C-alpha cells in the first residue's frame, strides 16, 4: 500500500489488446434484427455503413483483439491516462472508503471518445474510405471523430443536434479546427432532415434525427461510411483500454476495487472501465460491483424495458435488443448531453438483465452538487456526465461510513467540463431544477413501440 496521489504508467504499459467481454458472457447478446422483416441480419447488411474489420469485431466472440501498431502509436498522444486517489474528496466526506478515479479528460478532445474514434478512422482508412458521416449531441463524439479523421486524412461530416449547434459554438469551432464540416440537424441535405423540417421548420433536433441523417448519407455513397461513438459492441471493446490500464494501476497502488462506477449514456465508458474487471467476476468468481450511473430524466436502465428497439428516429438502423424508453422518447434538456440517448447497448443490456451489473439514477441537482464538491477538493472540473458517477460514488462512500466498513471505489472521470461552464453557472445561480420523468411519460413513449418483445 502506498500513499501515492497519482498513479501513472509508462507508454510500454498501454495495452496491446482490447478485451471482448462477449467471449466470457454466460448469455450472449441477442442479434440485431432487420427493421422491416424482424429477421436477424447478417454482416453483409452492415457493409454499406461500416468497414469490414469493424463488422468482424462487432460479431466477434474472441476474448482478445490486437490493437494495430499505428493505433497504439496514436494512443500515445494522451495514453496511458493517469489514475488518482481522491484524498481530498475522501477527507471532505469523512469516509472510511478509499476513492480512486481514472481520468480520461486528458485526451485532445477532452473525453474518452478518441479511444474508439482513432481505431474507427484507422480501419476506414485501411479500407479506402474517403469520407465519414456521424451525428453528435453535445459535441464530444463529433470532436473526437474530427480529431481522428484529421490524423488519417479522411473527410469528416458531422450532423450536430440543432439545439447544441446553437448553444455550444465552441465545440463546433473545435471540429472545424480539426478539419471537419459541421451541419445543424435537422438539415436540408437529407430526406430525413427535410421531412422533419417540413413538419417543424424550427425543430431543435435530436440524436435520433441526426443519426438518421448521417446514416442516410453513408448508405448513398460507396466512398462514405458512418461511425457511431457508443452503443455498438466494437465501440465498447475499444474503450476497454481504460479498464485494462486501470487494473495495472490498481495493482501498483496495492489495491483492488470493490465497487466500480461510471456514467452511462450508451455504455461505452462504463464498459471501458468496467468490463476488464468484470472479466474477473465472470472467469474467477470475483464479486466486484459495477454500477452504471444515469440521469433520472432519461432512466432507461432503471425504468426502461428490455426489448428490441430502433437506434434512430426514422427507422434506418437495425433493431437492437436494449433497455429502452422508446426511440421517440425526448429527454428533458438536462445538461449531460452525452447521457440523453433513449437506449443502451446490447451487451450492457444483457448483463443488466442477467444481474451481472447494477444501475442507479441521479437527478441533476445531486449531480452538480457532487461535481462541485469534487472540483473544490480534487481540482478537476468534471463533465456533467461524470457528475452522475461522482454523485453515485458519494452515495456509496456515505453508505460505507454508515456501515463502518472500508470499501475501495474506482470511478471513471470520463471527461472535463470546460465546455459546460454554462451549466455550472446555472447551477451556481440557482437556476437548475430537479427533473424526474413521470411513469405516464414513459408508458406513453413505450406504447408507440411495435417491435419484438424479448421473453
Ligand atoms: C459521450 C459521453 C458520455 C456518454 O457516452 P457513453 O458511451 O455511455 O460513455 C459520457 N461522458 C462523456 C464525457 C461523453 O463524452
Automatic annotation (TrEMBL):
Described purpose of this protein according to its UniProt entry: The beta subunit is responsible for the synthesis of L-tryptophan from indole and L-serine.
Identify the enzyme class.
Answer: lyase
Q: What is its cofactor?
A: pyridoxal 5'-phosphate
| Gene responsible for this protein | trpB
Which keywords belong to this entry?
Amino-acid biosynthesis, Aromatic amino acid biosynthesis, Lyase, Pyridoxal phosphate, Tryptophan biosynthesis
Looking at the record, the residues that make up the Tryptophan synthase beta chain-like PALP domain are 78-415
Q: Which PANTHER family match?
A: TRYPTOPHAN SYNTHASE (PTHR48077:SF6), TRYPTOPHAN SYNTHASE-RELATED (PTHR48077)
The metabolic or biological pathway listed in the UniProt record of this protein is: Amino-acid biosynthesis; L-tryptophan biosynthesis; L-tryptophan from chorismate: step 5/5
Q: What is this protein called?
A: Tryptophan synthase beta chain
**Which Enzyme Commission number(s) are listed?**
4.2.1.20
List the HAMAP family.
Trp_synth_beta (MF_00133)
Instruction: Give the superkingdom in one word.
Output: Bacteria
Q: Which reaction does it catalyse?
A: (1S,2R)-1-C-(indol-3-yl)glycerol 3-phosphate + L-serine = D-glyceraldehyde 3-phosphate + L-tryptophan + H2O
Residue numbers of N6-(pyridoxal phosphate)lysine PTMs: 113
Subunit text:
Tetramer of two alpha and two beta chains.
Q: Return the similarity comment.
A: Belongs to the TrpB family.
